[in-house]
Amino acid sequence: MSTAEIHRSVAPSVVEHRTSRKGVWLTSAIIAVLAAGFALYWFKFRPNAASTGTAAGGGRGAMNRDVPVVTASSRMGDFNIYLTGLGTVAPFNTVTVRSRVDGQVNTVAFTEGQFVHEGDLVAEIDPRPFQVQLEQAEGQMIKDQAQLNNAKANVQRDREAKDAISAQQLDTDVATMNQYEGAVKIDQGQIDSAKLQLTYCKITAPISGRIGFRQVDQGNIVHASDATGLAVITQLQPIAVLFSLQQENISAVLRKTHAGETLAVDAYDRELKNKLAAGTLLAADNQIDPTTGMLRFKAQFENQDFSLFPNQFVNARLLIDTLKSVVLVPNAAVQHGLQSDFIYVVKPDGTVEMRNVTVGPTEGNDTVITDGLKPGETLVTDGVDKLQDGSKVTLAQGENGPTTRPHGMTGGGRRRNATSKPST
Predict the structure, then answer these.
(1) Which residues, 6 or more positions from 76, have their beta carbon under 8 angstroms from its beta carbon?
(2) Model confidence pTM above 0.90
(3) Under CATH, what is the fold of the domain 66-78+324-395?
C-alpha cells in the first residue's frame, strides 16, 4: 500500500476521534455550568438548616419560652357612673346697659372687659338740662304754694264770718283752695320727675358681671330709644351649662331629682381631657326635642376661677350613680372573644390562665368586673397577642406590681382578638 493510501485511511479516524473529544469537553462544560448555578442557587436561596430546625422543633420550644408582658393588679374600689352630654355655657343674666334719658355722654367710667359690680358707675350723661328743669319745677312749686296758703286763709275767714259771707262765696273760695292744692301736687310731681332724670344721668351697672366692648364713646349724644345701648354686662358668677341627654336616661335622672337628691355635674373641655369646673344639676326642661329625642338639662356652676365662658362648648358629665366596693381592672386587661370576655391572669407559678369574666360598665381607664375575678390578682395588660392558656410569662416588675412596660417593648402589644376562644 502506498503512503498516500495509508494517510487517506487513517485521516477519517483521527478526525472522528477529535470530534468525539470536542463533544465530551462541551458536555462537561455545560454540566459544570449547571452544577455551579445549582450550587449558587442552593447556598443562596435554600432555607437555613439551623433556622428550619429551630422552626420545626421550636414550635414546642416557643411555648416554653417566657413571654415578656406588662401587668397590673385588680383592685377593690368605688366606681362612678356618668352620663355625658354636649353642652353650652349660658349666663343666668345678660343686660344691655342703656341710657334712660336723652343727652350727651360726659363720662365713660368703665374699661372694656372689666368686671363690674352692681351699682358701679358705667357712664354719666350731662345733667345740666335736668337741673334747669328741677329749678323751674321748684319755682312753680313756690308760687303755687303761696297761692294755696292764701286760698286757705280766705276759706278760714269765710268760715269764721259765716253770717256775713254768703254760701256761694264760701263755695268759691273752697274751690279755689282745692285748685291750688292740685297745682301744688303737680309741681311736686314735676320736681320728683326732674330729680329722677338727674338720677338717670348716672348710669350704673344693674348686675354684677363682665362688661363688654363699649358701643358709644364720650361726647356722643344718646337717646333712651337707642337700640344698641352703651355696653353689655354678662353675669359670670354663678353661670349655667345647658346640655342634652338621650331620653332613655331621663327616668333615672328624674327619679333621683324627685327624691330630693343633688346630682353632681362636671364640665370638661371638648376633648374630654381637662376638667373645667364642678357644679350641680339645677333643672330639667319640660319637653323632649322631637327631632333629636333628647331632653335639655341645666346645671349651675359657681365659676370662681372664670374657667367657664358664655357660649363655650363643653362636655357635661352627670354623676348618676356610684357602685360601692366593686372589682376594677384596667381596660387594657379585658379581651373580647366570640363567646365571652376574658382576662389573662398570671398564676403564682408564672403561667397565665385565660379566665372568662363578666364585664360591667367602663369609665375612663377602669372597667368593672362583676364576676370571675377577685381583687389583688395579677393581670396581663400588654403582650396578650403572644399568649395562650398556660403560657409562661416574664413579669415586667414582679407579681402584683404596677403597670409597667418592659425594656425594649413598644406600645400596641395589646390586641382585642375577636376570634379568640377562651377556655371553658
Answers:
(1) 325, 326, 327, 328, 375
(2) no
(3) 2.40.420
